[in-house]
Amino acid sequence: MDTGSHLQEGEEDLMSHAPLVAKVIAKAPHGEGCPRCGGYVYAAEQMLARGRAFHKSCFKCGLCTKGLDSISCCEGPDKDIYCRVCYGKKFGPKGYGYGQGGGTLQSDIIGLESTQAPKTTVVDTASIKASPGHGCPRCGGVVFAAEECLAKGRQWHRKCFKCKDCNKTLDSIIACDGPDKDVYCKTCYGKKWGPHGYGFACGSGFLQTDGLTEEEISASRPFYNPDTTSIKAPPGQGCPRCGGMVFAAEQQLAKGTMWHKKCFNCAECHRPLDSMLACDGPDREIHCRACYGKLFGPKGFGYGHAPTLMSTEGQSTIIFPDARPNSGRKAAPGKGCSRCGYSVYAAEQMISKNGIWHKRCFSCCDCGKSLDSTNLNDAPNGEIYCRGCYGRSFGPRGVGFGMGAGTLTMA
User: Fold this and answer.
1) Which domain holds residue 82?
2) CA distances (Å), origin 403, targets 267, 384, 398, 406
């Protein structure tokens, strides 16, 4: 077998022993090139930091020479770049829990051998006094933007924003502004300013009146007059049911007229109504759906509550087998239904290429099948057909077409 010995004889002669010399990079003017090597930086290899362009190969940490990218790069105050770890060691905060991450006390002031913990600084918010009426309402000190809390248009220190009674720390959700221009939590506000009596305040099951007599309690209660007609409105401007003045807090709208909430009920069964249940009748009254159907809805077999065949004029419905209009004047030529000629209203019209149709007339001319926009076919004779009837009447004929019997048929 061939061992390849003829290739090993001149292997040493083929190898070059010349030293590898780094490619010389053209130096840029001072302050314009790479901050690390001083050479020109072209657009294809530049990395930006502090507004200066580095080579990709020079974009490394100044301490550990770790390769950096736009996420891990930290710009130091000495105009050099570092990784996050080296930046924290060199410029980060020092003290307990910082620096090298050890569990010992590290501080620039206290030695590493000291066992004393740093003292907690208690800041007096009232040390910088504000002008009267402009500082924190609790301590009177100046409130800076980083610590302000707003309540009733006034600025409070975050430290002072507590309940006046129980000193509970507050926020914008649970803070309640009292009439004494102070802030309370919801519980203390309810005890101090909320309603008193059975079931209120502390929740006891007995009557709590703060020592007031029955006459004093009755005098403090607001007066309520349930009569909606006590204030009459000008004719045509008040509630259609009672004629009283309708104010914005209690108005209900129906057919452009304003009703009292108390009067907004069915004229027949007096059921309370809302905007979903109310039906405006032609008698300028409002009704629930059931009463509206009984009074003004269609009548006959299957309508109302009686399962018998009824007619408003005593006529039999058998004379109208196809439910199409057979009385009245027909529409102008080209304006009405293409099949029956009577007027077509917007609520029932169906549109095809040749004209407009009633929903009941929108069916195949041959088989009478109901049509829609998916199976409609407009014929050249002005009628409409389903697909099957259109193919039989106007489709191609021959082998494979028409009746499909495999015989040659020619029109």
Assistant:
1) 43-91
2) 64, 21, 9, 8
